[in-house]
User: Fold this.
Amino acid sequence: MAKAGYVDIFSGLYGGYKIACAPRQVTEKDIYLTVGKESITPPTTEATGTETFISLIILKAETEFQNILEQYTLEHIIQHRKI
Assistant:
């Protein structure tokens, strides 16, 4: 998250971390992709018709999932957390 510019890290005795930008600017999709989730792509090697079809279904589901994540921000999580 620090490499993506979403978090500032401080070292030393009083070190720690803090959000580097406004929570409303960071979507859940940003977080999802930043923590290591790569987009699924269809196979590039020759495959059976079934494997290709299943891959396309998974790709479509992943795309829809990321579209939903894009509708929510870190601010939404902060507002709805239970203390």
Notes: The mean pLDDT is 82. Residues 7 and 19 are 5 Å apart (CA to CA).
